[in-house]
Amino acid sequence: MRVAVVGQGIVGISSALAIAKRFPKAAITVFGDRPFESTCSYGPAGLFRLDHFENRKWAKTSFERFAEIEKEFPGSETGVKLISGHIQSDNKATLEGQEKNMADIVYNFRWLTDREIQLMFPNPSK
């Protein structure tokens, strides 16, 4: 079997990897129009976030797969690296929506303490 994957960002590479695992004898060629370092997956556009509850099934599957890739291969080769971060908003409902959408999918989802908010963010909204 010969397979062509168009796109060498995280979606293309993880798709090629999934095909290789399912069909070990497949000849897989990945095509891209630029070096990996110039793709969105290499930079900040690769942050994982789930804004729509109806997409939870796919987000859970994707996060679990990205976690496997991050453990199995160097981030410098895959573009997948586990980092922590914060979702910041002046709208509490937005933050509560993020909690509902992905608290049980990602690692260590939690609310910041008042002290952390004061120390990390200048002039936080009340």
Automatic annotation (TrEMBL):
<dbReference type="GO" id="GO:0005737">
    <property type="term" value="C:cytoplasm"/>
</dbReference>
<keyword id="KW-0285">Flavoprotein</keyword>
<feature type="domain" description="FAD dependent oxidoreductase">
    <location>
        <begin position="2"/>
        <end position="123"/>
    </location>
</feature>
<dbReference type="InterPro" id="IPR036188">
    <property type="entry name" value="FAD/NAD-bd_sf"/>
</dbReference>
<comment type="similarity">
    <text>Belongs to the DAMOX/DASOX family.</text>
</comment>
<dbReference type="GO" id="GO:0019478">
    <property type="term" value="P:D-amino acid catabolic process"/>
</dbReference>
<protein>
    <submittedName>
        <fullName>FAD dependent oxidoreductase domain-containing protein</fullName>
    </submittedName>
</protein>
<keyword id="KW-0560">Oxidoreductase</keyword>
<dbReference type="InterPro" id="IPR006076">
    <property type="entry name" value="FAD-dep_OxRdtase"/>
</dbReference>
<dbReference type="InterPro" id="IPR023209">
    <property type="entry name" value="DAO"/>
</dbReference>
<keyword id="KW-0274">FAD</keyword>
<dbReference type="GO" id="GO:0071949">
    <property type="term" value="F:FAD binding"/>
</dbReference>
<dbReference type="GO" id="GO:0003884">
    <property type="term" value="F:D-amino-acid oxidase activity"/>
</dbReference>
<dbReference type="Pfam" id="PF01266">
    <property type="entry name" value="DAO"/>
</dbReference>
